[in-house]
Amino acid sequence: MIVDNKFWPESSELPLFEKIDPTQIEGQVETVLTKLQSSFDELKKTQEINWDSFVRPLEKIYFGFHRLWSPISHCHMVLNSEPLREAYEKCQPKVVQFGLALAQDPFIRESCEKIRNSSNWESLTSGQKRTIEGKLLDAKLSGAFLEGEQRKSFNEIAQKLSQLATEFSNNVLDETKSFSMELSQKEEVAGLPASALSMASAAYHSKTQKPSTPEEGPWLFTLDGPSFIGFMQNADRQDLRESMYRAYVKRASSGDKNNWPLIDEILELRLKKSKLLGFDNYAELSLAKKMAGSVQEVIDLHESLIDAGREAARKEHQDLQAFAEQKGHSGELRNWDVAYWSKKQQEHLYRFDEEDLKPYLPLHTVLEGLFGLVRKIFGIRVEAQPEGFSTWHNDVQFFKIFDDRSNQHISSFYLDPYSRPENKRGGAWMDDAQLTAVIDGHKILPVAYLVCNGTPPVGDTPSLMTFREVETIFHEFGHGLQHMLTTVEEMDVAGISGVEWDAVELASQFMENWCYHRPTFDSFAKHYQTGEKVPDELFSKLKNAKNFRVASGLMRQVHFGSVDLDLHSRFTPGGNETPNQVVKKSAERLLALEPLEEDAFLCSFSHIFAGGYASGYYSYKWAEVLSADAFSAFEEAGLDNEEAVSEVGQRYRETILSLGGSAHPSEVFESFRGRKPSTKPLMKHMGLQAKRNSL
């Protein structure tokens, strides 16, 4: 029997979000953790240690813990409120302590060692071996081998880091939603398309409850992604773009929401934690669980990308400067000019305006095309479930996935597609609502959360997406597929669990490639009023513009990855150099246009200070090498050869999507591709010259 909780009782297949009352969270957490601890104490009485007697019951304990904390943690990100935040922050130390206590318990380590040293070791499956080896590594990284004062210090650090990450994230959320720009004169919004004005008008009415129209205003612009990006790309008023930009890059860098002290403390504590565990720095600790074998391997990847992209990026900036001057801009381009003039240059070079695509990209047809694609290449059917599920917001949709061959229900997912800056974290992500597991002989099906911050509907007009938002949905659905199509039954290595962090973006980035395949594109790009497909000329412009300023984007990503790696390997907290100086040094070397003096992007760099990407931001590019190479297998088969694509898709499903963390990612990749990964396909896709052939 699974340990019960009010928010997700054993009798319910899904969480009961309407039951999540902030006033009851603390009591529920304490009750369930007590029961789970009791179950663990019983497990410790086990005399004969083997897979069934030890691992399966332990999985059940972790499964019960996940069913408690997953919906609470999820609501904290998508339905943030003061009462919920307060309850979450009260419970987080208890949750961290429970996890540490289990991970550090000698019983787990000793039991895993017994299994690994037993005569039955070679008879275990790859997934079972990876589970045991992963638990032993987790035990080491959780301080299980530490004693006395060292363990006490380690636990205090772990608690504090968890607290600081939450505080960092909350500060970014609060600062993002605290700024808004209210405009009332038409000349102030010159250049902005109708879609941006509609969204800004709706935002003004929502905040003030006063009347507004898209044509006459007033309008309200915020630092939330769709609003901010639309303004920076289109607003003719340079002074207003400057105001928006400065507010954006200074988020959470002063006052009572200042993240600079938190950054210093996080970096110092991470280094102390690493030293306690026997690593020279936090990057080494982080890479212990990644595909890249060393800091030097990551540096080598970065240097290869720098060789391919730095000069090309500088040339792109020179070209942009020249173009802007031709069109009447005076002086050097400033940081708040780049997005604006880049869009103008793209329109000039390719006669392509992303706004022209938006009427063809309503969310419902994008989903139809996406679901049709995965049915064609992976043999799965996605069906919407209009009722019978609990939700945290009316925008949320729920779907079930069925295997075409067996017609069996194999997994499910929630989709929360729209931006809600008042209570929802920015960005996009996939998270596991329910893990795959075998509990008391019964297989539990995986359930995913797919969360985006796309353009919401306005009035009677449906959500009309930007092409970037379409790519984001494909991306997150790729993550979801790896979680939902796993055939592995060992919970620790099923789906994305146990997959080395720098390989986990493979499945997501792979899906983005299909957005540029014309038959796939036609399946989701249909005019929301007429149902017409995108004209050939407009699609050609989109495709031709794909690699517009690609080198600049590449160097921006390498800059972020290099800063992350430097802060966690070379940098000394409390030394002569500040974290911001690390940023500036990297920017001087890598970026064509250096950041403003007051730019504090680190203070909103949640990926590495409040997410899982510390010493792992390079993973995006590492995995992009893998994903481009994986997609090239379909290109070699012929993207329009449905039979061949289906055959390759089945192999991809049976390896990348099925095996999850049950084998090392290099083995999984080679079992799909038949060889080691190559950088050539990525460089080819980007129109750049590869400097080396493989990872």
> Structural class, from helix and strand content?
alpha+beta
- What's the main sheet like? 5 strands, mixed
**How much of the sequence is in beta strands?**
5-15%
Terminal Cα span: 45 Å
Number of strands: 9
Physical arrangement of strands within the biggest beta sheet: 3-4-5-9-6
Helical percentage: 55-70%
- Radius of gyration, in Å, reads 25 Å
Q: Average pLDDT across residues? A: 95
Instruction: Quickly count the helices.
Output: 26
Shape: globular
Low-confidence stretches: none
Q: Could you explain how this protein is built, in words?
A:
By secondary structure, the protein is α+β, with helices and mostly antiparallel strands. 56% of the residues lie in helices and 7% in strands. The protein has 26 helices and 9 strands. The protein has helices at 22-43, 51-78, 82-104, 106-116, 126-141, 148-178, 194-208, 225-234, 238-249, 260-276, 282-287, 295-326, 338-350, 354-357, 363-378, 467-484, 506-512, 518-524, 536-544, 550-569, 579-590, 606-609, 619-637, 642-659, 665-673, 680-686; strands at residues 180-183, 219-222, 380-384, 397-403, 409-418, 429-434, 437-439, 442-444, 447-454. The strands form 3 sheets. A 5-stranded mixed sheet has the order 3-4-5-9-6, sandwiched between helices. Strands 1-2 form a two-stranded antiparallel sheet. Helix 2 runs antiparallel to helix 3 (82-104). The longest helix has 32 residues, at 295-326. The radius of gyration is 25 Å and the shape is globular. The two termini are 45 Å apart. The mean pLDDT is 95.
